[in-house]
Design brief:
Strand content of chain A: 25-35%
CATH superfamily of the largest domain in chain B: Thiolase/Chalcone synthase
Helix content of chain B: 25-40%
Largest sheet of chain B: 11 strands, mixed
Structural class of chain A: alpha+beta
Radius of gyration of chain B: 19 Å
Structural class of chain B: alpha/beta
Order of helices and strands of chain B: EHEHHEHEHHHHEHEHEHEEHEE
Oligomer: heterodimer
Radius of gyration of chain A: 24 Å
Number of strands of chain B: 11
CATH class of the largest domain in chain B: Alpha Beta
CATH architecture of the largest domain in chain B: 3-Layer(aba) Sandwich
Number of helices of chain A: 2
Chain lengths: 199, 351
Amino acid sequence: MSADPSIPPAALSGEVRLPEKLAEVEPVRSVRTPIRLEYDFIPGSASSGYLNAFADRKILGQRSPVDGAVFVPPRGVDPRHGAATPDYVELPDTGHVGGFCVTRLPIPGRDDLEIPYVSAWIHLDGADIGFLGLVGGIDTSEVRMGMRVRAVWKPDDQLGRTAENILHWEPTGEPDIPVTAAGTNAWHAKQAAESGEQD
Amino acid sequence: MRDIAVVSVAQSQEKALTHTTEVELMVPIINEARGAVGLTQDDIGFTCSGSSDFLAGQAFSFVHTLDAVGAVPPISESHVEMDGAWALYESWVKLQIGGIDTALVYSYGKSSPGSLRDVLSTQLDPYYLGPLWPDAFAMAALQARIMLDSGTVSEQRLAEIAVRSLNGAADNPLAVRSSADANVDSVLAEAPIADPLRPSDCAASADGGVAVVLAAGDRARELCERPAWIKGIDHRIDPHQPGVRDLTRAPSAHKAAVEAGAGNDRLDAAELAAPFTTQEHILEAELGLGSDTAVNASGGALAGHTMMAAGLMRIADAARQIHEGRANRVLGHAASGLFLQQNLVCVMEGE
């Protein structure tokens, strides 16, 4: 797809056949009909709790009533079972890198982001799924799966009700978690252990 | 043809959901519909939903809402960008094909985050009508003026339809607009909002959701004491370009009713999803509803119109009357598009 909206799409660039009386008239090759609609996004109950807690430097998850799995960020439901998750769990701001990628392309509107940057799936201690964050305070070539990290928060006077309060995640220097037990591997290992117990 | 019935319904509707996401809305509704007949998602053969991303202002919003269903282990699922009544139709077809005995159908709409009357302009063609951004009330008023000036309806008759909704809704906890005291004089005294339409001529916009469980044959009899058997279901469409249509009619509604066999026997009740009194008037004529049929005893869509769910809610309301033994032959109707462009008719009977 062409990035330049003034260039008509390929389908319209062919010959346009007009009735004879319109022969001298410039053909209409495309029509632009801008659409603009405004919405007041409502985060809902679970996300409101999550965002409000961020203002107090707290990270909240929710616990599944089915098997106790802890989800962060909370969405009010265990999506595996369609079960409501009314119980919040306060989580520490430490965890490990469950997976990551090094990106060398800029993000439109994020001029503040130095390239290359590392986005990572952060698995908080006590949570059973990961959530997205930036990794900083370390050379990109040193980032690895299983690396222990902690949150680097904005100064207290800049905290708002937003996940942007966490600037990035930096290494704690503790020993790594084995890759076989990191990220979703931890989840699978836990599930396997639980099904083993049931058997 | 297999015998297929609505065996369970659950719904919720409010004027505006200001602290609830679509997922949080649907979790209790879906669990109530499944739970009432003792089913979990593992027992459901096919799941189908109806919703619109234009209401949420969010691409693929229906994928988020699947969280409310529970898709582990992976489920057989589909979605229509239509009122949930069309998701029910797809599920009915799937059940007819066989291989499954149950289906979960749900739909929801939360239009309060945006301006529905503007959002609806995006359903118009993008070349000629869409760029003019005609407001939904203005378009409906244009139709109303044609109907009044051509003598196909009177202001008195429109007010009577409005009163029927307002009074009927007084006993319906799901209605967002009701009045036990309303009468023709009080409605006619209202100042028009889009001349000649008065506030009570236009459906009260609502946020909400509905879930329905379908089951086939003996499975339906196991799950429900009095299943609402779908005896006929059909949907038809008129041209999209309103200029080529007679706006005093809805031929697709008539055709759908004929194909669904609506007129084959007496109908105890009919629930119509008309967003305006003018369109409810057209539907009564096109569906051939007589004075022996209780039309919109719940207040209908006028008393609370949840975009994308109003039609499936009507079918649910009609089915419930059979479940509770209050009626034996009912009609549920759904509409979509400008000026009742698309219509679906579902005729249900007790055993």
